[in-house]
Design a protein that fits this description.
mainly alpha; about 70% helix; elongated; disordered N terminus
Length: about 210
């Protein structure tokens, strides 16, 4: 493949290059959490990571390229889905994972920054969608297993169930400013489970005719 056609940060080599990538992404994440996306500067990232500016500019090209690779790395290294044996247990585990991420002093600010980046840059927006696609794919088996056990109707859309958990938590992070606490996390998981059990998230093709 022509290197000029590769997307920023898309190469995944090992050895020293992998160590450089790790250092640069850690520095980029720290700066995003500290100052947000608007002031993210590749030269400052290079200085923080203690690597050459040319390396950063050649590989990532732009702040949006750094955000895209950072999100790819976060998706690759995030925790696998839970298997508690019940839908409610699995959804509560998912909600708690999201809650811990959003309330973490670094990760919460980092997500605000990457979401801000996605509102103004197509590359960052595509990377954010890919990140959430990866996470939804990882956790979808929890809902599929619940359908197989008869806890939810056949045809229940796993992604809709999981999105119903995250949505109120992200609303608090980004809009209302209300706390994302254990009560909120539990309520989000319980509401999504109850709705799923009642067939709210059965996809159109799986619904019975009235």
């Amino acid at each position: 493949m022509n290197p000029d056609t590769t997307s920023p940060g898309s190469v995944r080599p090992g050895g020293r290059t992998a160590r450089v990538r790790e250092s640069v992404l850690r520095a980029a994440g720290d700066l995003l959490a500290e100052h947000g996306y608007a002031t993210l500067d590749l030269a400052e990232v290079a200085a923080r990571a203690e690597v050459g500016k040319t390396t950063v500019y050649r590989r990532w090209r732009s702040p949006a390229g750094l955000v895209a690779d950072l999100l790819a790395d976060m998706a690759e290294t995030s925790l696998p889905h839970s298997d508690t044996g019940t839908l409610r247990g699995d959804l509560l585990a998912n909600a708690r994972l999201v809650g811990r991420t959003l309330t973490d002093p670094r990760q919460g600010r980092l997500f605000r920054a990457v979401i801000a980046a996605a509102t103004s840059d197509d590359t960052a927006a595509a990377a954010l969608r890919a990140f959430y696609d990866t996470r939804l794919t990882e956790w979808s088996p929890c809902v599929e297993a619940a359908a197989a056990r008869g806890e939810v109707p056949a045809g229940t859309d796993p992604r809709a169930v999981l999105s119903a958990i995250s949505a109120p938590l992200y609303y608090r992070l980004l809009a209302s400013g209300d706390p994302v606490d254990e009560a909120t996390v539990t309520a989000a998981a319980t509401a999504a489970a109850l709705a799923a059990e009642q067939g709210v998230f059965v996809s159109g093709t799986g619904r019975s005719a009235p």
